[in-house]
Amino acid sequence: MIVNTLRFSFREGTTQEEREEVLAAMRRTSTVESAAFGVVGQDLGDPSDGFTHAYCAGVADLAALERYLHDPVHLEGDSVILPRLARLSAVRFSDDMDPGLSERIMALHMEKVAQYPEWGRLLHSIPDVRVSAEN
């Protein structure tokens, strides 16, 4: 299982309607065929961290992750989600102890950036992004 957990907050000026649109897009993404589970809601961490919401999704393996990353629902959702985020922290972890898994996940990410340059631009336009990978 590969699990991706996102903590995030919205850009200043994002309306309540836009926030609901983002959360709905995330909920759709968390239920695509390749996702084993997904949760979207309020962040229950330390408020001083500056995050208001969280997203968590799990996929069975690397092949499922590749399908998840390229699922049309995910791609469409990201065009709604990414422009509205001010802060994003991503943590990945897995019960697969393969020491090369993190590099293979990063390779899938880089392939997606190359295939969808606009997606990469949107991701890199978020003012505060932190990504860590643990396996």
Question: What this model shows, in words?
Answer:
It contains 5 helices and 5 strands. It is globular and about 40 Å long. Helix content is 41%, strand content 30%. By secondary structure, it is an alpha+beta fold. The longest helix is centred in the C-terminal third of the chain and has 15 residues, at 101-115.
Helices and strands, with pairings:
Elements: E1 2-10, H1 16-29, E2 35-42, E3 53-59, H2 62-70, H3 72-81, E4 85-94, H4 101-115, H5 117-124, E5 128-133
Parallel strand pairs: 4-5
Antiparallel strand pairs: 1-3, 1-4, 2-3
Amount of helix: 40-55%
* Strand adjacency order, main sheet: 2-3-1-4-5
Order of helices and strands: EHEEHHEHHE
Number of strands: 5
Termini separation: 10 Å
Radius of gyration: 14 Å
Decide which structural class fits the backbone: alpha+beta
Low-confidence stretches: none
Overall pLDDT score? 95
Main attributes?
5 strands; 41% helix; 135 residues; 5-stranded mixed sheet; alpha+beta
Structure described in brief:
This protein is an alpha+beta fold. 41% of the residues lie in helices and 30% in strands. The protein contains 5 helices and 5 strands, in the order E-H-E-E-H-H-E-H-H-E.
